[in-house]
Amino acid sequence: MGHDRPQPHDRHARLIATNGARTISFLRDTIRRWRDPWERAYGRLPVDQRTREDVILDEPAIARELKKTDIPTRNIDIDVGRFREWRREADYEGRHEGYYTDNLDEKSLEHFLAADLANLQSGQVVIDVASQTGIAGEIYERLYGVEVYRQDLEYPAGMNDRLIGGDAADMPVPDNFADVLTLHCSFEHFEGPSDTGFIREAGRVLKPGGTCIIAPLYLAQYYIGLTHPPMADGVPFEPRMRIHALRHWKNRFGRMYSVDKFIERVWNHRGDLEGEILLVDNFRDVADSVYLRYILVLKKTG
Length: 302
Prior knowledge:
Layout: H1 8-35, H2 37-43, E1 50-51, H3 59-67, E2 73-76, H4 80-90, H5 92-95, H6 104-118, E3 125-128, H7 136-144, E4 147-152, E5 158-160, E6 163-165, E7 178-184, H8 194-205, E8 206-215, E9 224-227, E10 242-245, E11 254-256, H9 259-265, E12 273-280, E13 294-300
Parallel strand pairs: 1-10, 2-12, 3-4, 3-7, 4-6, 7-8, 9-10
Antiparallel strand pairs: 5-6, 8-13, 9-11, 12-13
């Protein structure tokens, strides 16, 4: 008994049908992406640098790279009970209803640790850098009796009462102006050379013995630029930067340093600022949503 063999024209017809279905699927996908502003913006990012993947940190790899350097590091634990008492005194919900409702645990912890590490004292001058709509200044003034100035690129240029407008790398204040500089989840948004410029500016603006707290400091196992593509026009992404484009992250730009890039762009420009990186061991004890793993502390000698 035999079987009919497919004729050449039958195989050809099936091949055409298969290729046709693939072509239609490709065209539908192309049209869908063309209609999606996010996809169109993603298509404008450098092809060999972009990815849609989320960032997955390799903390052991970061630790190994840090150990190869001469950067002082120190492990710290959060006193969670003390933090919760401080947060009650800060009264976020009563005085600033609606503030950072998606992750107040993280933001309030940044405020607490920055104040604690800087050892805020009554009468000190503090600049909350890249403050925008932040509320740390009000809390610091109320709880510690400090005099807070708020700086942001979006404020009107120059000094306007206690608002400082313009680039954080070129603040219109005298030398030795501030006792403390605080940056709460803001340093990573500095574009182009502004990160390097700010570190130099911190050395000028701080008084001798003054402190700068950057919390968090974002480190990764490779050099990363985060972005929401529809907001990314004009961002100066660097050639060696892996660009993670994220739909859920609604920010124009964020920088995560590899250890070598941190040294190149930040550490090597600190001048007479002494520094250390703090590794927060128990940040998850506050809440699962907290991500404050690394903090940069800089102190001006003298």
